[in-house]
Amino acid sequence: MEKQFLDIVELIRQSRNNAIRAVNTELINLYWNVGGYIKTKLSTAEWGDKTVEELAEFIQKNNPELKGFNKSSLYRMIQFYEVYANTQIVASLRRQLQETGNQPDIFGASLRPQFEQQDIRKTILSQISWTHHRTIFARCKSEEEREFYIRMTVKENYSVRELDRQISASLFERMVISNQKPIAPKSNNHPDISKTFKDSYIFEFLNLPDSYSESDLQKGLIKQMRDFILELGKDFLFVGDEYKIQVGKSDFYIDLLFYHRELQCLIAFELKADDFKPEHLGKLNFYLEALDRDVKKENENPSIGILLCKDRDNEVVEYALNRTLSPTLISKYHTQLPDKKLLQQKLHELFENTTSQRGE
Question: What is the pTM (predicted TM-score) of this model?
Answer without folding.
Answer: 0.56
